[in-house]
Amino acid sequence: MPQFQIIAGVPLTWYLTLSAVLFALGVAGFLFRRNIITVFMSIELMLNAVNLTFIAFSYKLKQNDGHIFSFFVMVVAAAEAAVGLAIILTVFKNRQTLEIDEVSSLRD
Amino acid sequence: MDIVLFLIFAAIAVVCALNLVIQRHPISSALSLIGVMAALAAIYLQLGGEFIAAAQLVVYAGAIMVLFVFVIMLLNEGKERKAKRLLWVTIAGLPLLFVFVVMIHFMIVHILPPSESVQFGAFTDGTAGAIGTKLFTAYLLPFEVTSVLILIAIVGAIVLARKEVD
Question: Please, what's the b/e burial string for B20-34 (b: 16 or more CB within 10 A of its CB; e: otherwise)?
Answer without folding.
Answer: bbebeebeebbbbbb
